[in-house]
Amino acid sequence: MKKIILLALVLLMICALLLSSCGSSEEGEEDLGDAITLYVYNWGEYISDGYDDSLDVNAEFEKYCREVLHKNVRVNYSTYSSNEDLYAKVSSGVTPTYDVIIPSDYMAARMIAEDMLEPINPKENIENYQFIDENFRGMYYDPDEMYTVPYTFGTVGVIYNTTIVDEDDIGSWDLLWNEKYSGNIIQFNNPRDAFGTAQYFLKYSVNSENEDEWREALDLLIEQKPILQCYAMDEVFNKMKGSSAAIAPYYAGDYFTMYDDNEDLAFYHPEEGTNVFVDVMCVPKNAGHKDLAIEYINFMQSEEIAVANAEYICYASPNTLVRESEDYIEYMTEEIHEDAIDILYGVLDDEEYVDKMQYFHDLPTETLSLMNDLWEELKLKSNISTSIYVICIVIVVLIVALFVIRFIIKKRRQKFFDLYKMN
Amino acid sequence: MKKKSFIEGFAAVPHVVWMFLFVLLPLVFVVYFTFTGADGKFSFDNITNLSRYLHIFLLSICFALIATTLCLLIGYPLAYFMSRMKPKTQKILVVLLMLPMWISLLIRTYSLMAILDNGGLFNTLLESIGITRVHIVGTPGAVILGMVYDFLPYMVLPIYTSLSKLDNRYYEAASDLGCNGAKSLFRVAIPLSLPGVVSGITMVFVPSISTFYISQKLGGGLFDLIGDTIEREFQNKSTYNIGAAISLVMMVLIIISVAVMNRFSEGDENERGIIV
Amino acid sequence: MKVLSRIYIPLIFILLYLPIIIVILFSFNDAGSMSHFDGFSLKWYAELFEDETALKALGNSLSLAVISSLLATLIGTFAAFGINKMRSRWLKTTIRSVTNVPMMNPDIVTGVSMMLLFVAAVSIPFLPIKFGQVTMIIAHTTFSLPYVILSVLPRFQQMDKYQTEAALDLGCTPAKAFFKVELPAVIPGIVSGLMLGFTLSLDDFVISHFVSSPDFQTLPLYIYNQTAHDVKYSMYALCALMVFVILLLLFAVNFAGSLGRGKKAKKA
Description:
The structure holds three protein chains of three kinds.
Chain A: H1 2-30, E1 36-43, H2 57-69, E2 73-80, H3 83-92, E3 100-101, H4 105-113, H5 122-125, E4 149-161, E5 185-188, H6 191-201, H7 211-224, E6 228-232, H8 236-241, E7 247-251, H9 252-261, E8 265-268, E9 276-281, H10 290-300, H11 303-313, H12 320-324, H13 326-336, H14 340-345, H15 351-354, H16 365-380, H17 386-422
Parallel strand pairs in A: 1-2, 1-3, 5-6
Antiparallel strand pairs in A: 4-7, 4-8, 4-9
Helix pairs in contact in A: 6-7, 7-16
Chain B: H1 2-10, H2 13-34, H3 45-48, H4 54-83, H5 87-102, H6 105-116, H7 121-128, H8 140-164, H9 168-176, H10 181-192, H11 194-210, H12 213-218, H13 226-235, H14 241-264
Chain C: H1 2-26, H2 43-48, H3 52-85, H4 89-104, H5 107-123, H6 133-158, H7 161-169, H8 174-203, H9 206-211, H10 219-228, H11 234-267
């Protein structure tokens, strides 16, 4: 009985402890009264979040709502790691209804085409839209400037570790296929970007509708698979920072985040051309708080916030206030990387190279499903040496042999017993 | 007397309803999605299309089989040695064995990866004593290592439980009849601990064949197993038919193999399903 | 043989614990790296306690574990009582085998099957179900139930049924007999079932991965998201803390158990 009481006591204590801890966390929320929750769905590592003494943008927005709009707002911020993830989540209805999402250009185009986005008419409704660079207005995905507000833009390039990779080998996409660095190479873990690397290498259009070109790209990716260390998205940060991998294609802005921790890393735009993208803020059609979402988007483009974001995530900003901010330029050049401004914004001024850069477009349904099929094929292809199968067969044979032997022994014993009984 | 039957009769009702709603009904949904196309019409396409995933199944079975065998080869001696220790030591060892089982698989797998990674502790140590780095993460070996490391306690514990129940007099009798150490191991311990072995094999094989975190982290996404494929189908797509079909086939596969395993074990029902 | 076992047991245990110990050790690493150790520091722990997402996940995890394990214990105890009293052998075995399904099935299958159910439930207009806390409680209760029944049912079976009859003869109503005689006898089973459900719920990742939504993160989901992104080094501190807590819980249970046993032995 003592034991029981003791156990019950321990349990009670634990429960009480738990409940008290839960209670306290809820109390903090209750102070806000009946808070409105604004669901923001963004890429991982894509906002200044208060880490390392940066500005916590979402907290600032909550403060702004309290003090200026006199509303109790709680930002529910969650992240995804690819456009396809975002699309699957938003279209499946599994998740809550998001108020602000930040897809890339081609995904915004698809969502607009499928009538998933709310026309927010930023020119009229978003005050800070006036500061958006002319070059990033009325782009192919939103020619009438109805649905989107650019958040960042950027390019894809190759990040490499100078202590492992020879300077002679860099410059082209072929570094990703260089067998010298087998086991040290990372490839994108999403179909669009991964096929993109092969297509740029082959000098094909990334928006090609020619099946043969896609298949050729697939062959190239299959050929690459044995020398890869992994397919990765944001795991790249840790792998490159910790020198666990030497070569990875990734977004220019993220290179600076990695460089901050590992100064051996360098970056180049491959000579064959590369991908340029704009990530845009939009409001899904079924959003619960559209007005607040517009307020949020406007807030994100105000000078202080836009600069804080640009300094934190290191992506290029389409906001002219940021571009012209001397603090920002000084910070990027001195604190981040001496060539930061050049790498982020310079490529767009290099007229020869601009012609080689391509935007992803929303692919027609057939090409899209072809790409997904081919990606599946690539993922399913395993270049496992036959030794694994051989070991397996040996194990199975051994198991069968074991059972046979046991069976024989049993039979013999039975015979022996039978003989014994007969006698 | 009427009252009594009322309480007794209805005590299990909430549970039965719960089980129907949240265990059987979901399985009905899996079957339903398996036999319908994306348009919601009845079709066998999902099943026939599975041939595409055939080698994923083969590969997963191979990985799980190798991992299970290794667990058995490493785990059996451990369980045997443990069962021959002093009772006090045994108690401590069992707690030590159970502890990793309660630590999140994510933590154990991720820490293993962080250590074995090219720039991790293991390779830094190798380099400091003058050996070149070894690529471990992203090889089949790493995935199998991860499985063995994560699931070894699940193999040892049931074997140990059935071995520790063995009366010491069996060993004494064996030695009286002329069996020395090794012989008594093969003649007495192994045959009598077979139920534990079977439940250990099930407890390692089932999670190994359905894992996705281990192959994602330690395999670098280069070797898709059944688990990865299901996870991708359900997380990155908005139609779940193929994913449901793969899950169903895997479930059937596991049920069959567990049934076959149990057929060969001579233990009774109560010996199995040792949890904790 | 003796020598071999003296070497073998420590060897395997060291290998088993090495990664965990290294993580704990490196969670105190000033350098914030897994390859070299710069000096002792608690800064990652300090950072962890400022990380609101992590704290929120902790709160979610704990409340979920408490609610789902209590719910599972409640349903499971009554179910065990009912199953034990059932006369039809067929009914008994059917219920028991259905109960065991979540235990035998791979987690991923349980996870996706429940996800399919919830996707369908969400699309029904009048059901107030949303992916998140509600679906998580349902899922966690479901996979804890078999374990609760597994630890409670044997207690009912071992119980001396004449005690209940005696209580009834002495004027107890069946309900009173249940609460006065049968319940106390099975309390140890209930407690261990509750504990088991609690730990299982705290630990579960695979099923949660499929039935939760981004706005209801538990600790394992938080760790998963961390390891899929740019890992904040404070995650190692979190891992170390989780190991400590589990260590504490396990020893508390064992200590309490052995204390109780000791007392009992003295009495006898």
